[in-house]
Design brief:
The complex is a heterodimer. Chain A is α/β, with parallel strands linked by helices. Chain A is built from twelve helices and 27 strands. In chain A, strands 3, 7, 11, 12, 13, 14, 15, 16 and 19 form a nine-stranded mixed beta sheet that branches. Chain A has a three-stranded antiparallel beta sheet with strand order 4-6-5, covered by helices on one side. In chain A, strands 8-9-10 form a three-stranded antiparallel beta sheet. In chain A, helix 7 crosses helix 8, helix 8 packs across helix 9 and helix 9 packs parallel to helix 10. Chain A is globular. Chain B is mainly alpha-helical. Among the domains of chain B are: about 90 residues, no CATH class; about 90 residues, no CATH class. Chain B is about 50% helix and about 5% strand. Chain B has 23 helices and six strands. In chain B, helix 4 packs parallel to helix 7 and helix 20 packs across helix 21. The two termini of chain B are about 20 Å apart. The model of chain B has no long low-confidence stretch (mean pLDDT about 95).
């Protein structure tokens, strides 16, 4: 939802809206919702996004476990199943996290972690390379693109990159002297590719970075050889110039971000090491907008759990990775909070695909389709998008298992680009028109990650999860909105916190919608 | 651009000889460039093939605290008590780096070909771990790198290291008509033989083809890993682990069905070998197979930027040669003829392909060692411990620099190989703001210099001696007292592309002379020559020359080949 749309709507709807005999309150300008939305946009230009890539294809079903369908889960993957009593329940307890992820469980309890269930895209690829490319370029599976989705955003927002002065159109064309994006490590990712070059700089260690890039070359004569060689020389010279120009900014921020007491991070944890650098740079005032981090090892074709069965299934390679991820993000979030910059930063994890629902006989899992994503930060407003995949426990819902016995994939509930869409629109404040062009002329429905209300995304039954942006029926604790042009049919009693009705609501006979109010 | 695959008939100029050597080896020495200048393109590539030593001296124990130092170990019995597995596999890196750098005075294409195929059929030291399996795999890749591609794929399919790396070992008949591990079956099609998509982006096969191929490949395991007293690793086939139901493939493969034969034909050890041959036949009939391989070779050796015109005029004709029967061997899919064809073609020598690749860390680092003719330590039985120390330290330094530049030898980050050989942007992936810093600090160190191992004999120093480089007798075209002559001399063949007159003036006046008049250099050189032992005089000319070289090696032009 866009702030301008909302304010226009709320000012012209000061009359109470009557729905089925219940008064539905229109929000005044002083309501917390409007306040938060106004605050939202005012800060959008200063916001930071952290992307964590789980390289290899994360096994979603051992990451987020459908506790309410435990026996089916156990049947699908007996040799690697996490014992029921070991799973860490979250929310109402129907869903649980891998036992190694105590940090994420805590963040979920504090409202700082969202689980987006069964994320994928139509006609998924099982190839590491192609699937990674699809996630990073955010195109349809059949479309090849040479630019990354975040790279396109940065290129659209900042003019003249990489030639100074680089200006920020979200900040009245103020000059941007800091890197637009930083990848921790030595190589840059496709996600941050602009049309001519990466929009990111890669740094491995801010402390040694300045010494490393030194004085550069800075030749005055810019003669070029012909053909591809000339393009390559131009490219290298730009990288040399960028390295030098950014080294001061990075060093300054890194020094300024050194606080006491020293933030506590787990050691021997590569993702924690990377997040530590990010927190310090953001805390030190670096204006970089996107950070890209990665952790490898998720291609768990065999022995993803420790041998021996039982609670040994809680241990092993996959458990170690998830434990590092969880502890890293928890420490990061605590660090941001201590620095008072928690509201500026949001992050998410992604992997090129999930893995099969059924395990293979080598105590591993093969390439699959859908898997959960984690979105973290104090600004998120949803704790769950979508629901546990139906692996046989929900008799009223179509199964989410696809394929023959022994080859069962999890179907998609949520297209990953809907999360990207919310990041571009609600987090970074792009207009829908801008976002559409950043997705190469495609639009996506919101998943209401950053808004105080969930909304309809089509006409349909109130009780159909596909009617709602959040991929499930609104909770009693949530504000709901029926958008203009949508007709929603209520055929059984339901409860929400508040309802905004800009479309039609058809109530079945004798059916009640209870609105609890603010 | 000239797209012709016809042989380039002009005798090679120095720059052209250097172009070939930069692509076919890890970079030339000045002597090698001279030796290849004036050859025909066909003779030049033939020499690079003729110079191959297919039976290199095996690696030796490089741990100078062990009594077995300097001894070969790859064929001795496995000994878990000694616990040397990690060291033994790690020494392959030293061994290979020394081979890349040494070239035995006669440069050959073998190490570059080996790197290409090792990065094609990736298995990694870290994942395979067993030192004998890694050696067996490595020697297989090396010895087959210019031979028959189909034999190569077959050999790799049965390779113990590959059975471990891509989980063939765990691939048994599964439940519900599925194989239990499809890792190798997928990469066999996607990465090794057919490619996931054609040039236009259409899928070359279906997901079901992956599953069917995985079932063909069921039943194989590696043997003898970490087994005491065994002298080699191997593989074995277990019929009860094999899926004997029919495997049906899609229309992309002509709707072939592969059945398990009822008896074992002559020449085969088991039914699965028959099925694997049928699978490979099917993959090799796919029209995209020869194009996929030729395109990958092209991107590695000629130019990563494959345009539609290059696809149509170079890749497709080359692929047609690849899939047709070779007159020499009577077989199709021979690698050597297409390498010869490509690297002696008019197209290869077209100016548009000169400098069209950003040097990989191997090319950048080993190429620098070779260009400046640094000594490559050899193992000397008369001075074993010291020579081993030099040999090991030399390679370790190169290995470490390559690793921080994200090219860890024999340890690609994924089965796709190094990013720069498949990721959008290709060789540009080697460069970013951190990498330019790492390249600078490496080349700066060549000028400040370092000793491999201090306090031993022989003492080996890696340092560019600039004064010796320019202190050449005066001729009709060269005078060391002329700063412009000096710049011409030290930039000769240094870069793939030529420098412009403006650039050379800038290098002479601004970089080397710091805007002092050129006559001052003439005086300083004359002063130095009149009393070469005078340190002040020496340092005056040396600092100018070293400043120049430091700048040259930091130039973007030095990073392309």
């Amino acid at each position: 939802m866009k702030r301008r749309d909302f304010l226009a709507a709320s000012s012209s709807f000061l009359l109470p809206v009557m729905v089925g005999g219940f008064g539905v309150k229109a929000f005044g300008a002083n309501s917390p919702l409007v306040q938060s939305l106004m605050k939202t946009d005012a800060l959008a230009k200063d916001r930071v996004l952290v992307i964590i890539y789980l390289n290899g294809g994360n096994d979603g079903l051992n990451t987020v476990i459908p506790l309410d369908q435990y026996s089916m889960y156990n049947t699908l993957r007996t040799n690697i199943a996490i014992p029921q009593t070991s799973v860490l329940p979250i929310g109402d307890g129907s869903t649980g996290l891998h036992p190694s992820m105590t940090g994420l469980k805590q963040l979920h309890a504090n409202g700082k972690l969202a689980v987006v269930h069964s994320v994928s895209y139509p006609t998924p690829s099982y190839s590491h390379y192609r699937a990674t490319d699809i996630w990073m370029t955010a195109t349809d599976a059949a479309v090849q693109a040479d630019t990354g989705w975040a790279g396109r955003y940065l290129e659209d927002r900042f003019a003249n990159y990489p030639t100074p002065p680089i200006t920020d159109r979200d900040a009245t064309n103020a000059v941007m002297e800091d890197p637009l994006a930083i990848q921790i490590g030595y190589l840059t990712s496709t996600t941050l590719l602009g049309s001519n070059q990466s929009m990111a700089v890669a740094i491995n260690d801010p402390q040694t970075y300045a010494a490393l890039v030194g004085g550069g070359t800075g030749g005055l004569i810019n003669d070029l050889p012909c053909c591809d060689a000339g393009d390559l020389v131009t490219f290298i010279r730009q990288q040399q110039a960028l390295a030098v120009s950014y080294s001061t900014e990075i060093t300054t921020a890194h020094n300024a971000g050194n606080i006491t007491p020293t933030p506590v991070y787990p050691t021997g944890n590569s993702i924690a090491d990377q997040l530590k650098i990010v927190a310090r740079l953001v805390g030190g005032g670096l204006k970089t907008k996107v950070y890209f981090l990665s952790i490898g090892g998720f291609d768990t074709h065999s022995t993803q759990v420790q041998a021996g069965g039982g609670t040994n299934n809680n241990l092993g390679g996959h458990a170690t990775l998830l434990g590092k991820l969880s502890a890293g993000i928890k420490a990061f979030q605590d660090d941001l909070q201590a620095r008072g910059i928690e509201d500026k930063v949001a992050g998410f994890t992604f992997s090129e695909f999930g893995r099969r629902a059924n395990s293979n006989s080598s105590a591993g899992t093969d390439h699959g389709v859908a898997a959960p994503m984690f979105v973290f930060g104090s600004s998120i407003k949803r704790q769950s998008v979508g629901r546990n995949p139906n692996i046989g426990g929900y008799s009223l819902l179509p199964t989410d298992l696809n394929g023959s016995v022994g080859n069962q994939d999890l179907k998609m509930q949520i297209d990953f680009r809907r999360i990207y869409w919310d990041i571009l629109t609600d987090w970074f404040g792009r207009s829908k028109t801008d976002a559409t062009s950043l997705f190469l002329n495609k639009t996506f429905d919101t998943v209401s990650l950053f808004t105080d209300e969930v909304c309809t995304i089509k006409t349909g039954s109130w009780h159909d999860e596909k009617t709602w942006s959040c991929g499930r029926v609104p909770f009693i604790s949530e504000n709901a909105r029926i958008c203009a042009g949508h007709t929603v049919t209520l055929s059984a009693n339901a409860s929400v916190k508040n309802l905004q009705n800009y479309g039609n609501l058809i109530m079945g006979t004798g059916v009640n919608l209870s609105v609890k109010g603010v | 651009m000239n797209y012709s695959l016809n042989a380039y008939t002009q005798p090679l100029s120095g720059a052209e000889a250097a172009h070939l050597l930069r692509r076919a080896t890890f970079g030339p020495t000045q002597t090698e460039i001279t030796n290849f200048t004036g050859l025909s393109a066909s003779t030049a590539i033939q020499n690079l093939i003729n110079n191959i030593n297919y039976i290199p001296t095996p690696p030796v124990d490089l741990n100078d605290t062990k009594t077995t130092v300097g001894q070969e170990y790859v064929n001795s019995a496995y000994d878990s008590v000694l616990a040397r597995n990690f060291e033994f596999r790690y020494y392959y890196n030293h061994w290979w780096i020394n081979m890349m750098a040494k070239q035995g005075g006669n440069p050959s294409i073998i190490d570059k070909m080996t790197l290409f195929w090792q990065n094609h059929f990736v298995t990694t030291e870290a994942a395979v771990d067993e030192y004998r399996a890694i050696y067996k795999y490595f020697m297989k890749v090396r010895s087959r790198s210019l031979e028959n591609f189909k034999d190569f794929v077959r050999d790799i399919t049965y390779d113990p290291a590959m059975l471990k790396y891509l989980n063939g070992n765990e691939n048994t008949k599964g439940t519900g008509g599925a194989a239990s591990n499809e890792n190798y079956a997928r990469e066999l099609q996607e990465l090794f033989v057919v490619g996931a998509k054609d040039f236009a982006g259409n899928s070359n096969y279906t997901e079901n083809d992956v599953k069917a191929a995985a079932r063909v490949l069921t039943g194989w395991q590696y043997t003898n890993f970490y087994t005491n007293t065994t002298t080699s690793v191997g593989n074995k086939f277990t019929l009860t682990r094999h899926d004997t139901a029919p495997k049906i493939f899609s229309a992309n493969y002509g709707s072939v069905t592969i059945n398990t034969p009822t008896s074992i034909p002559v020449g085969y050890n088991n039914v699965a070998e028959v099925e694997i041959d049928a699978l490979l036949n099917m993959l090799f009939i796919h029209p995209e197979t020869p194009k996929f391989i030729c395109r990958k070779l092209y991107r590695f050796f000629v130019n990563p930027n494959v345009t539609q015109a290059i696809e149509d005029n170079v890749i497709v004709p080359l692929a047609n040669i690849f899939k047709s029967v070779d007159a020499g061997t009577g077989r199709s899919f021979e690698i050597k003829p297409i390498i010869q064809k490509l690297l002696s073609s008019e197209h290869f020598y077209d100016v548009g392909n000169i400098g069209a690749i950003i040097k990989s860390p191997a090319e950048f680092i080993i190429g620098s060692h070779r260009f400046f003719n640094f000594p490559v330590p050899t193992i000397d039985s008369a001075n074993l411990v010291n020579s081993i120390k030099n040999y090991r330290t030399y390679a370790q330094y190169i290995y470490d620099r390559m690793s921080e530049m994200q090219m860890i030898l024999l340890d690609q980050p994924t089965v796709f190989g190094y990013d720069a050989y498949f990721q959008t942007g290709y060789s540009r992936n080697w460069i970013n703001t951190s990498q330019v810093g790492l390249r600078n600090s490496f080349t700066d160190k060549l000028i400040t210099g370092r000793t491999l191992v201090s306090g031993i004999t022989p003492l080996v120093t890696i340092k560019i001696d600039m004064v010796a480089m320019v202190d050449k007798p005066t001729t009709a075209t060269y005078n060391a007292a002329d700063a412009a002559n000096v710049v011409d001399l030290v930039t000769a063949n240094l870069m793939a592309t030529g420098l412009t007159t403006n650039q050379k003036m800038f290098l002479t006046d601004t970089i080397m002379l710091s805007l002092q008049p050129r006559t001052s250099w003439a005086n300083q050189w004359a002063t130095y020559k009149s009393a070469p032992t005078n340190t002040t005089n020496l340092n005056t000319v040396k600092s100018k020359l070293e400043g120049l070289m430091k700048y040259l090696l930091r130039m973007a032009e030095y990073s392309i080949c």
